[in-house]
Amino acid sequence: MKGHEYRRAGRSALLSISVAVVMGLAFTVIAITSAWAHGEKAQMPFLRMRSVQWYDIVWSKAEVKVGETVEITGKFHLSEFWPDSIGYPKESFLNIGQPGAVFVRKEVFLNGTFVPRAFTLEPGKTYEFKIVLLARRPGDWHVHPVMNIRNGGPLSGPGEYIKVTGDYADFTNTVTTLDGKTFDLETFGLTGIYSWHFLWMAIAAVWVAYWFRRGGFISRCLRVAGSPDVQSADKMISPLDEKIALGFLGGTLLIVMVAFTRTEAALPRALPLQSGLITIAPGDPAMNAPENVLVKYERAIYDVPGRRLVVNLQITNNSNEPVQIGELNTASVRFLNPKVMKDAVKYPDYLLAPEGLSVSDEKPIAPGETRKLSIIAQDALWDTQRLADIYYGTDSSMAGLLVFLGQNGTRHVIEIGGPAVPNYTNIGLLKL
Amino acid sequence: MSYTDVDVPNRRDKVQAAFRSFGEVAAAASVLNWLLLFIFFCVLLGAYHIHTMLLMGDWDFWIDWKDRRYWPTVGPIVTIPFIAAAQFFFWEKFRLPFGATFVVLALLVGEWINRYVNFWGWTWFPVNFCWPTEFIPGALFIDCVLLMSRSYIMTAVIGGLGYALLMYPSNWPILAQFHMPVEKNGLVMTLADLMGFETVRTGTPEYIRLIEKGTLRSFGQDVVPVSSFFAGFVSMVMYLIWHFIGRWFSRTDFIARI
Ligand SMILES: [Cu+2]
Which chain B residues are within 8 Å of A154, Cβ to Cβ? Predict the structure, then answer.
């Protein structure tokens, strides 16, 4: 090999090692998804508009200390317009979107049922949830409720910043077992983990060192290469080597056996990991009662240059009070009709269009009346939340929650949905 | 290729001329030995670590995936390939019976760096939640089998089986304490399940957890031995396949072409 060939070989070896290191790092980062913030925008609009309709989401506090809890409560309606392309929500999991293990998830309830594992959801039904988080790491964290659905991916709800103050050093997370023993899960079992791993690594290192000191690679390689046959090469292993190996073998088996039997004796009540779907309680019947305001979805146009969605509806008010349209909520973006509704819960700004909704006929719809009208949801959020891509979808359809407000304060939350036709110029909109 | 293939009459003189004394030769060989040790360790660490993360991934990462059925099945089967290849290389070229222990030690050093720096350091998963599986006892065993038997077939059969059977018992002293039962809102959970619930993994919903769901009904409670023996038999086959891959990677004839 000439000099430049050595350099070439060296370069390619270095390159392979770097590629291996970079791949290892990249894979780890992907595997543990530390960078989550606002990943939901990358999802296609139909996934966000026609799957989980999150609403009434409330973060109990905007700031907590390490060791204090914060609650996220709310409801979601599982879309009646569930896309064909994502799996039926047979296995779903109510998760949290947060950057790393910054909060400990203490409780998650769905319709009052504790759900640490997966459950089945039914499209068309409304559920209420409550999440209790224990602050663990100081910082400013964007936290979302997320519904994971097998073959559907993560369907993220709205996110809000929660500021955690204090010091991680003060954090503890205790639990009491059925045997009545109390542990801090933050540090539980660490001594055993570190000592066993250290012990075996030390034994392994001694084994490798013993053999490495018996001539290293160069002379052993030359001796093997110089041996006329396998038998004479095998003579490199001396009887003493074999005795020492036997000692390592016996010692290893003895340590494993003794440690195993002692563990079995010390912890006879160890259970296998628990698994299986959880059945959810039916929840408050009022949440799924039939609505007495009926909405017929007639035609929708997504006006591309105007960044607005126009939907023609026929509404029949069978309730006993006049109603008005206050809000359209789709993909967690809330388009409010300022004449009827103000945001009362300090909803995250990046998802709120406080004056985003207008109605072609603002007059309240009287009890018993049927009226045709158009709603217009218009805001730059169509672009910034990348919902405008609706007209790139394979079935160009939308769905969302339409919120009616009765004169006496009754709220009617009704899902609407159907095809949306793109309009690339302003011509033709007047015909609505 | 041997030295006689190439006709270089004064080759030995030239080699001798590069060093002034026998001591210098020994010193150079010693430096080269340490360099090779370091290079072998790093290269095997990188390759083995990626291989294990891709194939064993979550079972090795999380405490609530270390079950009685899939973990002792997947673990040995996906880790024995590098053991087979490394044993061939170190035994065939150097008569060094530490191939298995050497690669497994490298793997564990890599995993510990990853778990400590990335999992704990960057994303704050507690170390007791994401410690790596212990494979060293099985590796010591299979190295000793190769040394005693001096036969790759015996190593595949006895060593492969033993390697798989040793995985669960050598981890149980660490794992068992996390299988103590707790009650949470009327539900029985092990501490490992509880930690899996409390430690939020945004990208790992609970339903993707591939663990025992009580499907080995005819074998009753003895899930671990059944899984381990199955893993042992597959490990034997894997050992032989990867023995030949090790053979292929240990070739030196391409050097002649450089
Ligand atoms: Cu976010």
Answer: 202-203, 205
Average pLDDT, chain B: 90
Q: What is the DSSP letter of A419?
A: E
Taking the C-alpha atoms of residue A206 and residue A373, their distance in angstroms, rounded to an integer, is 82
pLDDT of residue A284: 87
A237, part of any domain: no
> At A92, is the secondary structure helix, strand, or coil?
strand
Q: Cβ contact (<8 Å) for B170 and A256?
A: yes
Whether residue B60 lies within 8 A of chain A, CB to CB, comes out as no
- Determine the angle formed by the axes of helices B136-149 and A239-266, rounding to 10 degrees: 150
In A150-207, which ranges are E strands? 153-156, 160-165, 174-176, 182-184
When pLDDT is averaged across residues B168-194 and rounded to a whole number, the result is 96
Angle between helices B71-94 and B22-55 (to 10 degrees): 160
Contact A219 B29 (CB under 8 A): yes
pLDDT given for residue A255 in this prediction = 98
Distance between CA atoms of A112 and A120, rounded to whole angstroms? 15
Residues of A in contact with B189 (CB under 8 A): 116, 274
* Conformation bin of residue A124: beta by default, left when phi > 0, alpha when psi is -120 to 50: left
Work out whether strand A103-110 and strand A126-135 pair parallel, antiparallel, or are unpaired.
Answer: antiparallel
B contacts of A261 (beta carbons < 8 Å): none
Dihedral angle, C-alpha A119, A125, A126, A128, nearest 10 °: -20
Pairwise CA distance, residues B46 & A307, whole Å: 50
The answer to whether A318 and A392 are in contact (CB under 8 A) is no
Q: How buried is residue B5: exposed, middle or buried, by Cβ count under 10 Å (0-12/13-18/19+)? A: exposed
ipTM field: 0.91
Res A34: pLDDT? 37
Model's pTM, two decimal places?
Answer: 0.88
Q: How confident is the model at residue B223 (pLDDT cuts 50, 70, 90)?
A: confident
Range of the domain at A96: 40-178
Structural domain contains residue A10: no
Tokens of A189: 């079992």
User: How far does residue A36's CA lie from ligand 1's centre (Å)?
Assistant: 7
pLDDT in the model for residue A1: 45
Q: How many domains does chain A have?
A: 2
Give the per-residue pLDDT at A87: 83
Fold of B26-257: particulate methane monooxygenase, chain B (1.20.1450)
What does the alpha-carbon distance between residue A233 and residue A224 come to, in Å, rounded to a whole number? 5
With an 8 Å Cβ cutoff, are B169 and A32 in contact? no
Residue A249 included in any domain: no
Q: pLDDT confidence of B5, banded at 50, 70, 90?
A: very low
Distance in Å, CA B203 to ligand 1 centroid: 14
Distance CA A222, CA A79 (A): 72
Considering Cα of B76, then B79, then B83, then B84, what sign does the dihedral take? positive
Cβ atoms A203, A252 nearer than 8 A: yes
Q: Which residues pair with A334 in a beta bridge?
A: A329, A352
**Chunked in runs of 10, what are the mean pLDDT values of chain A (432 residues)?**
56 61 58 48 82 95 97 96 88 95 97 96 95 97 94 90 96 95 96 97 98 92 91 92 96 97 93 93 88 94 88 96 96 94 86 95 95 95 86 83 93 94 69 49
Q: How far apart are CA A72 and CA A281, in angstroms?
A: 20
Q: Which residues contact A345 (CB under 8 A, 6 or more apart)?
A: A56, A57, A58
How confident is the model at residue A215, as a pLDDT? 87
Q: What is the CATH number for A76? A: 2.60.120.570
CA distance B64 to chain A (A): 7
